[in-house]
């Protein structure tokens, strides 16, 4: 408990030190200024807890975000048992738990629920409606009538919400959570995903029960609609959910845009740069290093100060990989994307084998079965 108490004291005093609190096993925050603002990380027992590389325009914004994030997020309680159960080496913040008492949606209940949200929630948080400053994403409403959806995902304009609530973009997710709570809704906050979940009446009628709706704040609706797209299973647009398309796309981008920065005398890689897809950002150029204090590491470490946004324009993503007049809609399912990778329009045919190997590894880690056309 002493670690937790020290951390609570640290947050309450609003201190932002650049050194350990106590010894090497105690939680601490670290800030680093560069041309893009402050870099904020939390560490525990030497392990970096990933917040998605958020950056801030001022130290005050960073402090406000830190205090709210630490005291509200799911992993906070894990610190209570940290002495007995150390955090895993690659601990990453996960989305919050389900909204209390939420039940799944039938497919014909999805649109009436969205209609109710547009009428009863959007005006209070500064949104006009679906198609303007919000978009339904994911598979809810696109499944077969016999299937259910555990939640409804709606991408919403972070800028509009921040303006309506009179807050900053960094604090918008917290103030949105507070606003929904003040309106009487049960909520769950997932700041790492810039997301607030709340319980909405299914089909707009509480007699049907309450279902979970995830409001995902974004500063680019077009990117969110592209990357979170789900095939329409009612029209047999694909046999596989959107995760398959995304994992294959991530593998292609990662394999096709990789450059070695430095090597050892023996020819082993020390540092390299690559493009990665971050669902909440776009395509980002990153640099990773295998160099450790005692030699090369088994797994490379991300050098966050080198992160650089490449694009989050869907058409530019397609243009990176393919020649011709391919459109984002031509890669909106696993089958379409794989067919293009195997076509003469793919810019990097020599990379196809490595792409498919990485794709299979990603599926295994995600515990998803291989598609029938992949051996």
Low-confidence stretches: 14-30, 42-54, 70-97
Mean pLDDT: 81
Termini Cα gap: 50 Å
**How large, in whole angstroms, is the Cα Rg?**
22 Å
Shape, please? globular
Number of domains: 3
Order of helices and strands: HEEEEHEHEEEHHEEEHHEEEEEHHH
Helix content: 25-40%
Largest sheet: 5 strands, mixed
Labels describing this entry:
single chain; 375 residues; alpha+beta; Beta Polymerase, domain 2; 3 domains; five-stranded mixed beta sheet; five-stranded antiparallel beta sheet
Outline the structure in words.
The longest helix is centred in the middle third of the chain and has 15 residues, at 242-256. The chain folds into three domains: 2-81, no CATH class; 105-219, Beta Polymerase, domain 2 (2-Layer Sandwich), CATH 3.30.460.10; 242-365, no CATH class. By secondary structure, the chain is of the alpha+beta class. Strand 1 and strand 2 (37-44) form a beta hairpin. It contains ten helices and 16 strands. Helix content is 29%, strand content 25%. Mean pLDDT is 81; it is low at 14-30, 42-54 and 70-97. A five-stranded mixed beta sheet has the order 6-8-11-10-9. Strands 12, 13, 14, 15 and 16 form a five-stranded antiparallel beta sheet that branches. Strands 1, 2, 3 and 4 form a four-stranded antiparallel beta sheet that branches.
